[in-house]
Design a protein that fits this description.
This protein is an alpha/beta fold. 36% of the residues lie in helices and 22% in strands. Pfam families: Transket_pyr.
Length: 300
């Protein structure tokens, strides 16, 4: 199976052929994959070099002219390093575009902490008007990317090497989908966390929701899932900073008695490179770690 990043490259190359409004802005990362697109559309495929602030600023400048920019690099260089440009050049100026990241929280541990971005979604959450997609499979990434490219708003698409075995229907309204129904609590699995959550909750009497669009947060969907339980117990499993969505969930359930556990990447920096799977296990995001923490929280 191809990776989400592979699918992004193939899909974006086709979209550039189909839609003259689209432009692609790169900062060296993934440039080799766009060699043909760069030859065919030299005025709409721009590589700015290792200049991430310019990367975002150039994309926003294109948006000001009426183009629809797709801006791409690793998450740490797309959201964290040029955050001021994301905030001002896109948000303050009120223009739309599509930011597409690779690298996720720890896809390339050997790159060190400079190439890890577990706080990216939390950082984007400080800005108004952004839609945030976290696909869990290359097919989902393609669907969400195509919708974002055809739209007008500000969209962040977070890609990862971690992928679920099968794709699920995504897009459209972007609400949480119910995968399994139970009476003993609600577990929200975000993007590539889905397979591990399913394995971890096997045999537990819980409702499992699947989320690929995390902003705007589907508060209504969460309220429906919690329903009339006397004590709504909710676990949110995210592939980025633990607790990123607990405030949104608390707001959604403000009128209901509830408890929320936010699971994700810990704040503690892991200074050993290791592998992606080893980082998952170290943060308790593998099936065994999730089973222990979800079961403990729900009293199972």
């Amino acid at each position: 199976m191809d990776t989400m990043r592979d699918r992004f490259i193939a899909t974006t190359a086709r979209l550039l052929d189909e839609d003259p409004r689209l432009a692609l802005v790169l900062a060296e990362i993934s440039r080799d994959g766009f060699a043909r697109a760069e030859r065919d559309h030299p005025d709409r495929v721009v590589n700015v070099g290792i200049r991430e602030q310019l990367l975002v600023g150039a994309g926003a400048g294109m948006a000001l002219t009426g183009m629809r920019p797709i801006v791409h690099t690793f998450a740490s260089f797309l959201v964290e390093r040029p955050f001021e440009q994301v905030k001002l050049d896109f948000g303050h100026q009120g223009v739309g575009g599509v930011l597409v990241s690779a690298g996720a929280s720890y896809d390339w541990p050997a790159g060190g902490f400079t190439h890890m971005a577990p706080g990216d979604v939390a950082l984007m959450d400080t800005l108004d008007g952004w839609t945030v997609h976290v696909p869990g499979h290359p097919d989902e990434a393609e669907t969400l990317l195509r919708e974002a490219a055809a739209g007008e708003g500000r969209v962040y698409v977070r890609l990862s090497l971690q992928s679920n075995r099968s794709a699920r229907p995504v897009g459209g309204a972007g609400g949480f989908s119910t995968v399994r129904e139970g009476t003993g609590g609600v577990v929200v699995a975000v993007g590539p966390m889905f397979d591990n959550v399913l394995a971890a909750t096997q045999g537990l009497d819980v409702t499992v929701l699947y989320a690929t669009t995390v902003r705007p947060f589907d508060g209504e969907g969460l309220r429906r899932a919690v329903g009339g339980r006397p004590a709504g117990e909710v676990v949110i499993v995210e592939p980025y900073l633990a607790g990123t969505s607990t405030a949104a969930a608390n707001d959604a359930l403000a009128a209901l008695p509830h408890r929320i556990l936010g699971l994700g990447v810990a704040r503690e920096e892991l200074r050993r490179y290791g592998t992606m799977d080893e980082h998952l296990a170290a943060h308790g995001l593998d099936p065994h770690g999730l089973r222990e923490r979800i079961g403990g929280f729900l009293g199972r």
